[in-house]
Write the structure tokens for this entry.
Amino acid sequence: MLDESKYSANQRLEGVDPIRLEVFKHMFASIAEEMGVVLRKTSYSPNIKERRDFSCALFDPSGNMIAQAAHIPVHLGSMPLSVRAAINKYSQSGNSPSKDLFPGDMILLNDPYQGGTHLPDITLVSPVFDQSSSNVSCLNDLTQAPLIGFVASRAHHADIGGMTPGSMPIAQEIIQEGLIIPPVKLFSQGQRNDDLWEMILANVRTPLERSGDLWAQVAANQRGVHRLQRIADEYGRQQISIFMDALLAYSENMTRKLLADLPDGTYTFEDYLDNDGVNEQPVLISVEITIQDEHAIVDFSSSAEQQKGSVNAVYAITLSAVYYVFRCLLNLDVPNNSGCLVPIEVIARPGSVVNAAFPAPVAGGNVETSQRIVDVLLGALSKACPELIPAASQGTMNNLIIGGWDPGNRRAFTYYETIGGGIGASSGTPGSSAVHSHMTNTLNTPVEALEYAYPIRVVRYEIRDGSGGLGESQGGDGIIREIEILVESQVTLLTERRIFAPYGLSGGQPGRLGENILFRSGEKKLLPGKGTFSLRENDRLVINTPGGGGFGGLSQSD
């Protein structure tokens, strides 16, 4: 969370030209957007190239996020924590040169307990220095150039080792989930750490694909560094610093105005995860939101203890969910930056399912618990501003991971995707059908790309008619995705809303529950929401995703 300045947001905005502020806002955002284009176009895996499961962002020298492209919401609040972990590891205030940051450095990490989300999400952080001609002329050594800020990319890699293909197992400790990478330099002054590179590739099932995706992140970061340096060349480091701070102050101001417009009070809501994948007991997620003037306290203290299974969320995930929900209530023109969180205090008890402690497994916390945190936040806020809040969307990412050996291509493969579903309806507006919602902003893998890359055939892909909750406004429908497995494979399902349905609001009905079904030799078997299974050649797996909740009660004539 951004530390509040000794000066108020209004004071920091005094004398700032609003037109130039708007120009810098778009310049900074364009850096993140262009990084994302480079990452997508140069990556190897369909998960990044097609599904676009990545995020890129720009940060100030303290690690505050200044701009994020319209990528993955679950990365909103967590990426600054990764950048700060890198800063803390390699700080220019250190006594040893090995503790310094230099031009050409790139710091790699995925540790969820150091700002990460879950192990497949690998973050690459690059410091950006002022190497403009006016500044370099005063320096004997480019390594002494002053720091402008950081750029970072985060991408979901389809495998990072661990006990099952895809690195999202039903684990009971994080060690089982894959290779844990603390902040470490992948590049030092432009030179790659070959030992680290080889160690990573030696611990994954698909080293060629991982190598290609890592190089794509390197290219994205290089583009971000170059673009920010170009801005420094044109406008100067002082102007960059002024407008970075002004944008943080502006977003803080807008969030304070939002909170001031909401009615003061305390609003509570609770919902459940179906289970943790190890035990059958439901997992409580509870929130209490207190709004007072321009400040909000979001308290998750009543939520369940951390679980044996992998549904635990680290604090970075909970922070991201809070950021996302309040950001959704703001005007679209407000920049995506750390200033939005300054007026909001987030309380999450250490050792709980929303602030897990090492060595709790966390693969599902990123993808499933994050969705339920959003559901309870929206449920609580529906009592403060019901006209602005929709019913629950599908509340799951329907994670499907398939891996094995492809004899036709003589190589291992790991396929990962999330599958869309129904959006919750709102006052006067029905929910959209068959799309991703809330903490995921990815696409579904196109059929052609999936079948080209993997020994898998898509048999059916259609809207699940009638799965949206009824109401004055009807919830959106989910998806039916049927896949035929062409070789023996190991499959992991990490799904939710198979027991507890997405809620409706104001008398609207809940959305229909999701289902996971296996067809083998003509026989149908209902699969649990979470688990790892061995599938045979020609088995068919059907994922029926949940619908969104309805809004408003139906009249007698309906």
Notes: The chain is about 25% helix and 25% strand.
